[in-house]
């Protein structure tokens, strides 16, 4: 009977706000029909054809209307068909109709709950997938993947483990959280797997991991399938039960997206590393030609990054400074050896030729599409002065690009503390004093203050106790 009722309900899906008024009209007609025709079993007929579709539409919420209507429909029967009959007969019909309505409401509520859960799962999968897809770094990919798995509600204990050198926890929640950023040597053997099959563990042998019971281990291949698994996702089983196929499918979808984005970011990092090594090689090649600046490129790169960090600049600015340091004097490749390698002080004419190296370098590098404008700004403007008397564009104050102002301080400091054919190397304290004298005229005062503070603090740390 339930199957027949379900088939009937599938044809009667009330979706408009007119259904309740129409049902009330039908109830009035039913009362009239009972008074005139006195059909037997009219309660069951009313329940099946009028009240069940309403109950099927709203689930438990529909019972607050359909049960009273079923009771009201019995009154005409008591006055007509069942007049003079025991009340028990009528109550039996009411109970039967109530049971039918209750069963239908229960079936519908299960379906509605499944639909709501499915909608929430789809939304979590969609939102989580977008976060993973739009993550701007490997760390953001890990965080977005962890959050997506949490929102799917697949497990209370989740860990993302990288296996590149040794098993290290990159992201964790629940009982795995205390092991975040730590190594889990017990997982090293799992990296030998080559397939996509899930495996299981009985706990993790680590004093900080608070996860008991069965743990499912999901392998992650970065990019195309590799001989070895590159990452693992650990999930504790909810209530000790295995994940149903639907949840495994969702987890695998998140894992595939995580693997694709992580592989993409690692490829970008490798490309950036190749670019950086190329730029560094170019700077070092210049040092082989200009013997008086041996080691200058690496020193100013390191000092620039340290100063940027002290000023609160982010990793992106630090990377831009590093590239600018590698290339800042690349224009000297276009300066004649008779001027560049002259032992002694330069004449004004020779000084003018040397000053052309910033525009030569800018012209050479602006043809490279992967170099940001900030790097080109360092190359062109690191000899500008705060008072506007520098070169090549005589920019003044804040008009000088910020990273160029920062690098100018570092570049001069290294030049002062390095030996040149025409001068001995200055002591660090003497060079810092010279920078302080140039603050507000040659250099940005705020940058000088931060650099001097950084160098003196470093000198204090380096002194023996």
From TrEMBL:
Show where the HD-GYP domain sits: 271-465
Superkingdom per UniProt: Bacteria
| Positions of the HD domain | 293-416
Q: InterPro entries in the record, alphabetically?
A: Cyclic_di-GMP/3'3'-cGAMP_PDE, HD/PDEase_dom, HD_domain, HD_GYP_dom, HDIG_dom
For this UniProt record, give its keywords in alphabetical order, as a comma-separated list. Answer: Membrane, Transmembrane, Transmembrane helix
Q: Which residues cross the membrane?
A: 21-54, 87-107
Q: What is this protein called?
A: Phosphohydrolase
Highest lineage ranks of the organism?
Bacteria, Thermotogati, Deinococcota, Deinococci, Deinococcales
